[in-house]
Amino acid sequence: MILTTCAACAAPLAHDAxxxxxxxxxxxxxxxxxxxxxxxxxxxxxxxxxxxxAEQYHxxxxxxxxxxxxxxxxxxxxxxxxxxxCTEALHWKTKESLVRGCACRGTAxxxxxxxxxxxxxxxxxxxxxxxxxxxxxxxxWGRWYTCSLCEQRHHGVVQxxxxxxxxxxxxxxxxxxxxxxxxxxxxxxxLFDANRHEDALSVRTAESSMERRLGAPEENIFAVMGxxxxxxxxxxxxxxxxALKREAxxxxxxxxxxYHADTINSTNNVANSLTDLGRYEEVKPxxxxxxxxxxxxxxxxxxxxxxxxxSLAEAVLxxxxxxxxxxxxxDVCRRSRRVLGxxxxxxxxxxxNLEVAKADLACARAPxxx
Length: 370
Hints:
By secondary structure, this protein is an all-alpha fold. Among the domains are: 1-50, no CATH class; 53-194, no CATH class. 66% of the residues lie in helices and 0% in strands. Helix 9 runs antiparallel to helix 10, helix 12 (303-318) packs antiparallel against helix 13 (322-340) and helix 13 runs antiparallel to helix 14 (345-365). The chain is globular, with a radius of gyration of 23 Å. The mean pLDDT is 91.
């Protein structure tokens, strides 16, 4: 993880915890530092320093590990293909193989993580050097998590690798630097996408502490706390997650109104926690209203609409209305297959949910005793 725990005892650290003078490795106190020195830090301190000091060295190592995982996961899909950026099968410098973790299909979308990262980095460097402004910066920042071909988000282990690429690119900047603050968010999202939820929680917690300490705008705090709440839900802290998600939804409505994408997403997040807690009757009216808002502002083919309708389908299925659940999920599968593609994990979830709903419907319609 990013270095938020003591290298010697793994206890959580304050942001101003003492560090090794040479390599900047962080510790609780001098006792932990001396103990770690005796237990082997002495042998690698210079190496860490030459690698850019502790945070940079650690990020570089984690990036290499994440790329290896992503390449292995994509190996069957990438055989015989070439990178759409550099046009080579193997990266000329790192010798890494290809990945594809977006909605591209056919022969499109194959790339090296290093090429994707370099593409995003070049765009951001141009933005900073030429002072192109906040709007352009936001648009170009999307290259760190969105495919430039299909314009859908990267997902899973590919996004995790890009998260580490982003953090190793900007993590060494001063804490107040805008891109460093954006990079920690990208890292947390990547870890979450790769189901590394405990690691994601560590990053989310560090991000929340940092943003509050730096006096971030209310909109930033809202986004960070929403992500933290979702992570709580994934590690089984459902009641805490629901409380935070309700707060985030109230903030979203106050800041943006009911028809904004962030409000729609926050409403979906509340529904997910209610579903985790088995409170399906509360989900139904919440999602019916959210579907109307989403249709009005984002349209029927937006991923937030897919999520809202899938949540409604699960709630009505649990209430015994199998035909409605099947009808909803058939349409969601048809649309998400066209927009996201069959390999996309969200489409696979909707397809599996549809199979469950169809099986329940078949059981309900079967003659008694059959």
